[in-house]
Structure formats: structure tokens, C-alpha cells
Model the fold of this input.
Amino acid sequence: MSQPKNQRVLSGVLQAVAAAILAQTLFFKFTGAEESRYIFAKLGAEPWGRLASGMAELIASVLLLMPRTAATGALISMGIMTGAIVSHWTRLGIVVLNDGGLLFALAWAVWLCGAGVLWIRRAQIPVLGFLFLPTPESQCDATEREDHFPTTR
Done:
């Protein structure tokens, strides 16, 4: 069963927003911008943490842009942003180098977009299916399953 059009559209918007934010930060991570170096130095992970984070964000943003892998990209982006949010709360502070909390807000924006995509596309992650409410596909009765997947007796 395919998703309703409004869910596909909402997922596409959330995917694009998250991917755009992640892709925009890649320039700063890979070029070693002052703010990125400061953040990862304060975390004790400069330069390897900055570059590894950049690679993970690149992978997540690419996966988010493809419908078949969007749920996986959302899950990865949520993991990365959970680390960023916790780092802000514990070591960096909400405001970093007078950014007015922009990086913290962007981390939350990506996390929330990822959560939305993951919820909409939860059926695409069978390993995590038990964590979410049943989807319409999983609610068909035995007769319907027999119609779709006949057994030989």
C-alpha cells in the first residue's frame, strides 16, 4: 500500500530541509572554518571528529534525498544531531562564538525533520517496526495475506 500524497509531500519537504541544512554545514567542516575548529577543539575531537562528522552528515544528506533510503538518512541525521544537541547542553553552551544559538537551533531543526521523516516512512525500517504504531500494511488479516501471498499445499 502506498502512502497518501500529503504524507509523501510532507516527507519530501522535511527531507529537503534536513538535507539542505546538513549540506550547508559541510563547507564549514571540510574547509576547517574557525567556528568548526573551535567547536571540535573544545570537544577534544579536532580534526578527526570534525571530518568524521562531516562525512556522516554528507552520507545522511545523500540518503535523505533518495526516497528508498530517506528513512535511513533520517535515522543517521537524528543520531548525529543528538550528539550535537548533547554537546551544546554539556560542553559548548547554546550560544557558540556569538552565533545567537543558531547552530543549536539548526541541530534541533534537523532532528525534528528527521523524526518526521522517520515517522512517515517507518514502514521502510523493518528492524524498528516494533517501536512504532502498526502501519495499514501490517493490519491486514490472514485472509488478505493469503490473497496476496498464496501458499502451496
